[in-house]
What we know:
alpha/beta; Rossmann fold; 2 domains; six-stranded parallel β-sheet; three-stranded antiparallel β-sheet; 7 helices; 11 strands
Amino acid sequence: MSIKVTIIGAGSVVFSLGLVKDLCLTEGLKGSEVCFMDINEESLDVIYRLGVRYAEDLGSDLKFQRTLDREESLQGADFVINTATVTHNEYFMKRRRELTAKHGYFYGHTGMPEYHNLQLMLDVVKDMEKICPDAYVLQAGNPVFAGTTLMTRETSIKVCGLCHGHYGYRNIASTIGLDPGRVTWQAPGLNHNIWLTHFYHEGQDA
C-alpha cells in the first residue's frame, strides 16, 4: 500500500529516525512517500540526509521529501505525525520559573504555559481540515492528553495521541541491574495508558 506520511517537527533526530526505521522495515509500505517538515532548515537537512541514507542501506523503497512549508507538507498526506514543540527548551523553562515566582506561584511541572504548543497542534489540524481532511494525525509532541482532547473537540480530524512513556522499561532494567540493550519488551497502549506485558532479558522472562 503506497501512502504519504508527513512528519512535522522532523528536525528531532530521536523521533524522526525511529519513525524512518519503522517505515523502512514495514514491507506493506513499499513505494510510500515520507515528507519531513521543520522550520529549522539545518536540522531538516540533517534528518533528510540521514533518512535517505538509512533507507538506501536497508534497501527500502521509500521516497523522501523535505520542506519548510507546513501547508506544502500536508498536500496529499494520509498520516501526519506531529512531533513539533514550541516551548520545551531551557530558555523558556527558565522564563516560566522566573515569571511564576515573580507573581507568587509555584511552577512545578504543571504544564501551565503550554498554550503555544496547544495552539500549534490546533493550527496543524485546522490546516489539515482544508488540505487533507481524510488524513489521521498521530500526536507525539506534548502535552499529548490535553492536545488530543483539544483537537478532537475543535476539529473534524481523526486524532490519535501517542505517548513515549514506554521507554520506562529502561528505568526498570537499570533498577534491577540489567543492561537495557539486552532487554526485549512489549508495552501496548495509547496516550498515557501503557502496560508492560512482556519483559525478557537475553530470552529469559525477567
